[in-house]
Amino acid sequence: MLAGKKVVVVGGSSGIGLSTAELATREGAEVIIASRNADRLNAAASTLGAKAMPTDVTNDESVENLFRNCGPVDHVVVTAAQLRTGPFKTVAMEDVRATMEGKFWGAWRVARSAEIRPGGSLTLVTGYLSIRPRPNSAIISVANGALESLTRALALELAPVRCNAVSPGIIDTPIRAAMPEAARRDMLAKTAASLPVGRVGVGEDIARQILAFMTIGFATGSIVYLDGGGLVT
């Protein structure tokens, strides 16, 4: 479905981004993956047969250089996030600002710098805490909500480029690797038991929706919540 198309996945070295890059490659796209971790990025690119471009989304010049080197592209996906959180009253302002820089302003920079061909797409990845917050995660809720508002605004400002967002629920990706393994497994098992689908998500679940946004020309300004039924339980 993507034969002859150039796809850039920012955050493409792991998790949802890597799953998206894998799926786009299987569908025939020329894939460029970008992230801060050069070693992990190069390893992923080698496995995929993709092009690697080390990029720090918190740095204006780094993002500008990425798209200067890419030239015109057909589809851009932003999954990059650097999340730091904690109790609202005590979380360090440095951590709050870092979360917004990595998730919201990073996506803003990408959207400004990318030269997307008419009819192409920009897909942002948010998170369902935007509409179902939980304690100790206020800044993540705020970043996700801001990205969803940005999605709708860019659907107008960037037209005829299409802009959409996917908002995942609990996904088993390496972003949770910082948790102790026993605690991670317990959290995922309890989450799976609470969901109508009986499992947590995996990267490919979200990647398939991102691919749909790339290929459905009538989709823009849309936000899809993929949470296994988390919002109705």
TrEMBL record:
One of its GO terms (molecular function) is oxidoreductase activity. Gene3D superfamilies: NAD(P)-binding Rossmann-like Domain. This is NAD(P)-dependent dehydrogenase, short-chain alcohol dehydrogenase family. Keywords: Oxidoreductase. Belongs to the short-chain dehydrogenases/reductases (SDR) family. The keyword Chaperone does not apply. InterPro entries: KR_dom (IPR057326), NAD(P)-bd_dom_sf (IPR036291), SDR_DHRS6-like (IPR051122), SDR_fam (IPR002347). Residues 5-173 form the Ketoreductase domain. Pfam families: adh_short_C2 (PF13561). The keyword Oxidoreductase applies.
